[in-house]
């Protein structure tokens, strides 16, 4: 499952129009850099085309998303540290889901709904250490659950 939730009106968002760099600071503090090329969007079917979640999934960066990226949970919650003004506005549905997120901040967004336009040269996000998916299972590059026993 992924893409758009059929039960809510989707945001009016277009994928990025200019190249930019996405920096993702993961839960362990490691930075991942992705040069986003609009010609290659969409990467995956998780979240809106060109969303933070979709870019992460397309580049092997783990960003939890229990609902498949359809704005039905808050597990893909991120803090946008830089470039927030280049991202689409949050919808009422996204804001409702964000109310369930841990460590909510004024710069909080759902990775599945946040689509940078490319108007800022850098967009930097941080994945909070805690989320609502307490039974989280890490996934390998092939999308299969990995066993760390």
Task: Describe the fold and architecture.
The protein has one domain: Ubiquitin-like (UB roll), CATH 3.10.20.30. A 5-stranded mixed beta sheet has the order 2-1-5-3-4. The chain has 2 helices and 5 strands. 34% of the residues are buried. The protein has 149 residues and is mainly beta. A hairpin with a 5-residue loop joins strand 1 and strand 2.
The overall average pLDDT, rounded, is 84
CATH-defined fold name: Ubiquitin-like (UB roll)
Binned strand content? 15-25%
Whole-number radius of gyration? 14 Å
Question: Outline of this structure?
Answer:
The protein is mainly β and 149 residues long. 9% of the residues lie in helices and 17% in strands. It has two helices and five strands; from the N terminus they run ββαβαββ.
SSE layout:
Blueprint: E1 20-25, E2 31-36, H1 52-58, E3 77-82, H2 92-98, E4 108-110, E5 122-126
Parallel strand pairs: 1-5
Antiparallel strand pairs: 1-2, 3-4, 3-5
């Amino acid at each position: 499952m992924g893409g758009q939730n059929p039960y809510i009106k989707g945001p009016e968002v277009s994928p990025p129009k200019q190249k930019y760099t996405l920096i993702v600071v993961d839960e362990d503090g490691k930075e991942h850099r992705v040069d986003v090329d609009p010609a290659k969007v969409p990467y995956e079917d998780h979240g809106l085309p060109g969303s933070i979640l979709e870019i992460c999934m397309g580049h092997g960066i783990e960003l939890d998303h229990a609902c498949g990226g359809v704005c039905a949970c808050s597990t893909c919650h991120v803090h946008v540290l830089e470039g927030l003004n280049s991202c689409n506005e949050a919808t009422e549905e996204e804001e409702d889901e964000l109310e369930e997120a841990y460590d909510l901040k004024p710069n909080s967004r759902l990775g599945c709904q946040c689509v940078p336009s490319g108007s800022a040269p850098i967009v930097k996000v941080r994945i909070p250490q805690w989320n609502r998916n307490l039974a989280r299972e890490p996934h390998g590059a092939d999308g299969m659950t990995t066993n760390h026993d």
